[in-house]
Inverse folding.
């Protein structure tokens, strides 16, 4: 089976909780979207805001990894609710990659005026090239590379 690549939309506070748990889940804990993931698929998280629903705008790729196994499982949440999840091996030592410098470069942003509308569903299949471009932008710079020009250019995870 071919490896596929996915973009999941979630605010940063939620991405941090998912990353700490080593999982991915969809909004409201449903199965939609998770059923399409397979073991070794690439996954990148895009955070339009720091917090939902009205938090400060972030507009950056905030976490990246690979689906670590092929099965979904139910996890208990607060107040007795349950959500469907899949395990993710997240990349360590990453930085946030703002989307703005990549708009027009990434295949899914080629239509510069309306590219964000396709993210409203919360999940989008992306190309391998887009995944690799985002991953390269999120890698922690080596010691001999220049530091960011300002804290708004790159946010350290």
């Amino acid at each position: 089976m071919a490896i596929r690549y996915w973009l999941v939309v979630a605010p940063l506070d939620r991405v941090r909780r998912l990353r700490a748990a080593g999982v991915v889940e969809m909004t409201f804990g449903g199965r939609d979207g998770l059923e399409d993931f397979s073991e070794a698929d690439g996954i990148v998280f895009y955070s339009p805001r720091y917090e939902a629903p009205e938090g400060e705008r972030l507009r950056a790729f905030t976490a990246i990894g690979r689906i670590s196994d092929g099965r979904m499982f139910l996890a208990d949440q607060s107040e007795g609710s349950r959500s469907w999840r899949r395990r993710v091996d997240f990349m360590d030592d990453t930085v946030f990659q703002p989307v703005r410098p990549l708009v027009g470069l990434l295949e899914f942003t080629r239509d510069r005026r309306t590219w964000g509308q396709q993210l409203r569903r919360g999940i989008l299949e992306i190309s391998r090239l887009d995944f690799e471009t985002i991953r390269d932008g999120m890698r922690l710079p080596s010691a001999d590379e220049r530091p960011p020009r300002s804290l708004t250019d790159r946010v350290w995870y």
